[in-house]
């Protein structure tokens, strides 16, 4: 039985969700909804990364003495945001949860048993804000962290190391045998070059300073970033706590990540899994970053838009539509309120919204409806492209295809001029076919839109009295004319009301 397991990165708990996080999470949500639509048991995971040492600092800065309390409050903010945005995640993992701790310990021990963990001297310039070591040449001319503009600490300590270098050949072989493991294709060369030229053993622990997961058997050290954070993908589906669930979901089918962490996910992560004797995920897909009105999203610029503010004006579905349509999946893009407002007007209010209200208004009070075949081929072809583009990780292209079919529908209305047929008593049969065909186009359209705009799709079904549509299988429902009972046409409020400036 096929299944689909998709993950987002776990988000740093001391950030606040901004539009960039929403974009990543909407993308994963759309893909997860698509897999549910085609009938695959689906697991969609997101969560928060909570063991970073800098959380102690952030808690203090926020005036909290109790770090756990601070983290609980911040993690709740993420969960509430995703709830308000209608994200359909099946689980939410927090890395301070017991199930995670147990899995991390088990994983460490498995890697240790493979002989891949050893003690070594680590020395480096460490920025606590970045949780990363810098080379002298990476710092600003004043010797500061380029991101945080603070002086990194010279850290020299004995740490545990992971023998990732041992897996170089195995990794290259895996990438060769699985050319779509690192995706999109544009990222693959970067990953291969990294493995070939820069794969060095990595330090995987730090001196314990009161926060983090202790190294099993050595409480003087805590497990550092990757050997803690990445393990969430395993622990959420039962690694270390529930073997049956784990066997059901692992390996993951898609890790959706930002392009800045694809190297870790395509080199370090598979090496860790090989060492622990676990199967490797099918794909790591890197989405691009976007700027806001051509500026990088940053705290100092104060342009880190809260997605919930946009949703107040435009609604969740319009924001989902805009982000997935406007930003090529896997590439970079730019966000601007003007373009969001523009797409809202042209594609949603005038496009989709108008198409739906036009047909509902024409059909209201008409008793006889017969589904004709005039739009059958158009929709049959649309479904083919729809599945093809989803399989190729091109959700933006899927939306283009759907809006193409809308155009065809509009053209059909203009050609058939049902308003004229309505006035002619001898054209009742012809009218029934035109309107029946158009109603069927709405039913098909709502199915097509479901992964992208779930609320809108449901409103369309509801206005036709087909609230139970989604209980059917797509295979059955996507057949042209597969209506189980006639529509009960009810006009509704506009799906995308015009916004007054
Ligand atoms: Zn920094």
UniProtKB/TrEMBL annotation:
Location of the Methionyl-tRNA synthetase anticodon-binding domain: 373-499
Primary gene name: metG
Gene Ontology CC, one term: cytoplasm
Chief place of localization: cytoplasm
Listed name of the protein: Methionine--tRNA ligase
Sequence intervals crossing the membrane: none
UniProt motif 'HIGH' region: location: 11-21
Domain Methionyl/Leucyl tRNA synthetase, residue spans: 144-359
């Amino acid at each position: 039985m096929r299944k689909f397991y998709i993950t987002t990165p776990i988000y740093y708990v001391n950030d606040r969700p901004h539009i960039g996080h929403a974009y990543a999470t909407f993308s994963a949500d759309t893909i997860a909804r698509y897999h549910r639509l085609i009938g695959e048991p689906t697991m969609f995971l997101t969560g928060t990364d909570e063991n970073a040492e800098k959380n102690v600092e952030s808690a203090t800065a926020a005036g909290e003495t109790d770090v756990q309390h601070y983290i609980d409050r911040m993690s709740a903010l993420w969960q509430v945001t995703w709830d308000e945005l209608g994200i359909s995640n099946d689980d939410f993992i927090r890395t301070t949860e017991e199930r995670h701790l147990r899995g991390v310990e088990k994983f460490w021990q498995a890697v240790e048993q493979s002989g891949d963990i050893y003690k070594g001297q680590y020395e480096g310039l460490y920025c606590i804000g970045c949780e990363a070591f810098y080379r002298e040449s990476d710092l600003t001319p004043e010797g500061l962290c380029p991101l945080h503009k603070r002086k990194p600490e010279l850290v020299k300590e004995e740490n545990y190391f992971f023998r990732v270098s041992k897996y170089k050949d195995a990794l290259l072989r895996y990438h060769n045998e699985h050319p779509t493991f690192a995706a999109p294709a544009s990222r693959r060369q970067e990953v291969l070059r990294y493995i070939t030229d820069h794969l060095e053993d990595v330090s995987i622990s730090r001196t314990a300073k009161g926060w983090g997961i202790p190294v099993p058997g050595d409480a003087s050290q805590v497990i550092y970033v990757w050997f803690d954070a990445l393990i969430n993908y395993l622990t959420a589906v039962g690694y270390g706590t529930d073997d049956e669930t784990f066997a059901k979901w692992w390996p993951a089918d898609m890790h959706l990540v930002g392009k800045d962490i694809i190297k870790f996910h395509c080199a370090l992560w598979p090496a860790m899994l090989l060492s622990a004797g676990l199967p490797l995920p099918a794909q790591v897909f890197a989405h691009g970053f976007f700027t806001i009105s051509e500026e990088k999203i940053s705290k100092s610029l104060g342009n880190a838009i809260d997605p919930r503010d946009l949703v107040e004006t435009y609604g969740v579905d319009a924001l989902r539509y805009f982000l997935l349509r406007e930003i090529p999946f896997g590439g970079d893009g730019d966000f601007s309120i003007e373009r969001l407002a523009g797409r809202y007007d042209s594609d949603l209010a005038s496009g989709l919204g108008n198409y739906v209200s036009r047909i509902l208004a024409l059909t209201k009070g008409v008793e006889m409806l017969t589904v004709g075949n005039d739009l059958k081929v158009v929709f049959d072809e649309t479904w083919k492209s729809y599945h093809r583009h989803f399989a190729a990780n091109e959700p933006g292209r899927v939306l283009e295809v759907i809006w193409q079919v809308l155009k065809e529908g509009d053209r059909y209305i203009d050609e058939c001029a049902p308003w004229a047929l309505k006035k002619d008593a001898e054209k009742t049969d012809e009218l029934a076919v035109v309107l029946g065909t158009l109603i069927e186009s709405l039913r098909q359209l709502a199915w097509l839109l479901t992964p992208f705009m779930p609320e809108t799709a449901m409103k369309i079904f509801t206005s036709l009295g087909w609230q139970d549509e989604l209980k059917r299988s797509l295979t059955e429902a996507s057949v042209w004319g597969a209506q189980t009972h006639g529509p009960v046409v009810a006009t509704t409020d506009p799906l995308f009301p015009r916004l007054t400036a």
